[in-house]
Write a structure and sequence with these properties.
single chain, 420 residues
Amino acid sequence: MNTIRKMYCRTFQFCFRAALPVLPYREPEILDNMEELGNVLARKGKTSALIVTDKGISGLGLVKGLTDALEKAGITYTLYDDTVPNPTIDNVEAARRVYLENGCSAVIAFGGGSSIDCAKAAGARIAKPRQPVRKMRGLLKIHKKLPMLAVIPTTAGTGSETTLAAVITDASTHHKYPINDFSLIPRYAVLDYRVTTGLPRHITATTGMDALTHAVEAYIGGSTTKLTKRMAETAVRLIRDNLKQAYDNGEDAKARESMLYAAYCAGIAFTRSYVGYIHGVAHSLGGRYGVPHGLANAVILPWFLEEYGVSCEKRLGQLARNCEIAGREADDHTASETFIRWIRELNRSMEIPETIEGIRQEDIPGMAAHADRESNPLYPVPRLMDRKELEVMYRRIGGLEKVCGKQPERNGQKWKSAIS
């Protein structure tokens, strides 16, 4: 990246960090179960709710606990379950229509990051009917109160239950639109581990690594605070102790409960301190090929940490030592290398591949330009990169370029269909 653009990016990030203490961040109120949510809605005078979810969740009957709780509290509900992975503008508009046609007064997201993001964007469109999703892209474009929003995460990873962000895909261009506004932070988050016990192993793995990516990017970036460091470290420790256990035994209540809280802590961390190029690249892969976001982050994370090198060693080494992934006596370089090695070993133990197959060379310049626009100047990354430098990373992530004379491994054959 040229010097003038670097100066602009760093100045923008410095000003944003300086404003952090006065920005209206808040945390959702945590509820332990769905019965509590029904009671809260009733106390708030909400008589009808829109439930935003997907066909997989509704088909498995997982929503029944929520609908029973709403009925018990005397609240009617309408179900919108057409949300797709990487939710689209069409999903958002359809959910908004269902809300209005049924006279709803609250929105409940039930599912993973896709359902939560769809619900957030639908709430934004309800609040601002004259502003299309495309015009909400970026930072602080909504600044208007949404209908009451409650979320029930069924995966432990996205952290969307805590964040001011939603990511929506434009199906016509295959681009993702990150929307960031304080009004998108949910009012209530129901952390009920019971809804996560039936998750498939590969979803447990990739969403858990998504949470780890949130914590790491928040920690090594230039906008960390005492709070976000503490939250990120808590998340990493919980993931270290519980992700593989939840993967191996999906019915382990303690592991599931701990992973939900890890995702929550990581969400708090990156909401305030932001993410980095890993997310910019992951969003472009999701928009272009439909790669699940957690899978993309899991694969990309170690590649970027290696590429950042010395620029992130001090903070990554500190994170590794504080979370007892590296020894207390390890220097920054050794500790950071140990941390990256731990990530790769954890990925392998859960059959997550080292590369993402199917990335086409001809698509890389466009995806890199999209990631560049999303990431710069907003994300306070350890080392700034421009479009050309990001193109190199796509080739590495896709296994299209040798690194240090060694072709990346392509393990985890069951993931080969991630890109069609």
